[in-house]
Amino acid sequence: MENPSRDTVEAFPAFSSFSVLNCIDLSSPDIQNSVSLLKQACLDAGFFYVVNHGISQEFMDEVFAQSKLFFDLPISEKMKVLRNEKHRGYTPVLDELLDPDNQVNGDYKEGYYIGVEVPEDDFGAQKPFYGPNVWPSADLILGWRQTMEKYHREALEVAKAVARIIALALDLDGDFFDKPEMLGEPIATLRLLHYEGGNQIKGRVSNPVKGIYGAGAHSDYGLITLLATDDVLGLQICKDKDANPRSWEYVAPMKGAFIVNLGDMLERWSNCIFRSTLHRVLGNGQERYSIAYFVEPSHECLVECLPSCKSEKNPPKFPPVKCGTYLTQRYKDTHTDLSSYQKHQI
């Protein structure tokens, strides 16, 4: 087939381009090389791979297996742990609408939010995104909570290691993001994701021409995101979000690696020197699982232009904003109002 049409390119990944991303080895003793590779990636794509991060492949496989066990439960069981106002728990298919200008429905994916565990009687539990997590019954999936809590802890250590390299790439002290008001008390959120397989019924096969997506085009909200995926293709990125028309490239899964991308807060901090990158997920009929780990600073952290990223010729482009305030609004803009579920429950 010569000169495939746009529709054909969208439907068949074989005709689509793939993004070539830098790979950062967290076990490398050559920190300057890691900084150089990361800086180039942040200036070019806003996405990169991280390998040798310290989380074993055996444990990663276990987390994916446990995720599948949950999503295989009947919808009646999953709705018992529907997400609450603190964004903890289950999100049904179509719950999230990331690109309202181009989507006819919400995202054709289901998910599960797990945040930093804070007891109900703790003062911090009053804050948005903090409080006790919502867990499925231990009788349903043995050891599920323990597996997810362990992954949450280990992924945070990986995120902190990546943040240290980002700090050096921005000409800051390596421990800049380790401060208590930043990643010392983070809003770190683990999200299990499942894209259903099957035929074109119910939007399982994405069609951008018709406004149907596994996940609509968006940039992430926070500092960085660590994404672990299975081997099913689906993630696409757009390096230039201001382009018209936009050009999309697939990001190939890499066994044992995290796909890391920059969030909007880092774009604000760096005064657009480092850009958060638009990305989306196209479902091709294959079942797909991924695990996203969103890393944001503390609620009270003031996100404002870094001294190393501004000058007389390049003044700050964004006003300062508190992390908690910013995140609350972004989640409100993209998720279904919880009251709509109550109306449909008997």
UniProtKB/TrEMBL annotation:
Organism: Tetracentron sinense
Entry superkingdom: Eukaryota
Domain Fe2OG dioxygenase: from-to ranges: 186-297
Official protein name in the record: Fe2OG dioxygenase domain-containing protein
Keyword field: Iron, Metal-binding, Oxidoreductase
InterPro entries associated with the record: DIOX_N, IPNS-like_FE2OG_OXY, IPNS-like_sf, Oxoglu/Fe-dep_dioxygenase_dom
Any GO molecular function: dioxygenase activity
Family from the record: Belongs to the iron/ascorbate-dependent oxidoreductase family.
